[in-house]
Amino acid sequence: MEARWSIRQLLLQAFGVLCSLDKTVISIMLTSVLPSELARDMLSNPRNIPKLNYSSLLLTMVFSMGEPMPVTSQDYLGQDFLRFVLDNIEAPPDTDLDEQIPDLFLNLLISFNLQFDEETLNPLLVALDERQSAKAFSEKILLLLNREEDPIRIFDHEPAPPHSLLKLFKDLFSRRSTSQLFYTNDSKVLIDIIVRNIADLSPGDQRRHDYLELCRRVLRNTNYHEHRHRSEDILKCFTRIFCEESALSKRDQYLLKEIFAEFPQYFK
Q1: Does 17 share its domain with 142?
Q2: Which of 55, 82, 97, 139 has the fewest Cβ atoms surrounding its Cβ within 10 A?
Q3: Of 239, 143, 231, which Cα lies nearest the Cα of 191?
Q4: Within 10 Å of residue 132's Cβ, how many Cβ atoms?
Q5: DSSP secondary structure code for residue 247 in this structure
Q6: Is residue 201 one of the residues assigned to a domain?
Q7: What single DSSP character describes residue 201?
Q8: What pLDDT, in 10s, does the model give residues 186-216?
């Protein structure tokens, strides 16, 4: 890619505009050398805020549709890169005077995570497994989820990818090691969000199903048995869904049967 920053900056801006035009453009960029080149440039310029800003934003766009990147890109977008991004979320460079890097890098990771389904080895979860703490990361994604926003839904291209934050939370709570990155109070806040959304969302809404699945994973992979936060409210929500007569509720009701069978101690 062009080495002169004045020209490179214009190229990155143009690539961003092209991504907004058609999903095919994103697919072409994803399978090109562009993601690897952007990651390499970020690693080579860890204190250059304009480069980090533009490169991370374009990478977020390229990953935003959830298409898997080619294997050849994993050399530059592997564990070293993910550690670099996570480190800068927790402790951004002192040159980041406007404090933009943590949020831009967070969106990059949320977008990056979209491409991995539950049957594949997720390198982001591997990178998080290695960390003793990810306080800024966990607090920021919890705040975003509480706002009920999807920060990665940048474009209106179809088919739309899964809700990026709900997918990330389901992935994080799919294993005990990454769920432990959240303090008990954070888990309680997450349960509050889950209860609110299960109560508010309608039958047939994919998000309600996702929140129910997330609830199951919180019950399974956290210390929920120690505090049983909002257990009565959770039971009320579950009971209401069981009483729904719409055919749209059948999928959620089947999931609830599985939850009751797995955790009878919480729903007597």
Answers
A1: yes
A2: 97
A3: 231
A4: 6
A5: G
A6: yes
A7: S
A8: 999 999 999 999 999 999 999 999 999 999 9
Same domain, 102 and 5: yes
In a domain, 256, yes or no: yes
d(CA 76, CA 40): 6
CA distance 170 to 216: 10
- The 10s digit of each residue's pLDDT in 147-183 is 998 999 999 999 999 999 999 999 999 999 999 999 9
The token pair at 90 is 């927790």
Number of domains in the chain: 2
Q: Domain for residue 172, yes or no? A: no
Cα(44)–Cα(256) distance, integer angstroms: 49
What is the 3-state secondary structure of 50-106?
HHHHHHHHHHHHHHCCCCCCCHHHHHCCCHHHHHHHHHHHHCCCCCCCCCCHHHHHH
Measured between alpha carbons, how far is residue 159 from residues 24, 154, 155, 238 in Å? 12, 13, 11, 30
Kindly state whether residue 101 falls inside one of the protein's structural domains: yes
Return d(Cα 199, Cα 179) in angstroms, integer: 24
pLDDT tens figures, 228-237: 999 999 999 9
* CB within 8 Å of 188: residues ≥ 6 apart: 227, 229, 230
Q: Please write the tens of the pLDDT for every residue from 71-124.
A: 889 889 999 999 999 999 999 999 999 999 999 999 999 999 999 987 668 999
Domain range spanning residue 263? 183-268
Q: What is the DSSP letter of 203?
A: T
116: closest CA among 56, 172, 35, 180? 172
pLDDT score of 127? 97
- Retrieve residue 220's tokens: 């399974």
Angle of helix 135-146 relative to helix 101-113, nearest 10 degrees, comes to 80
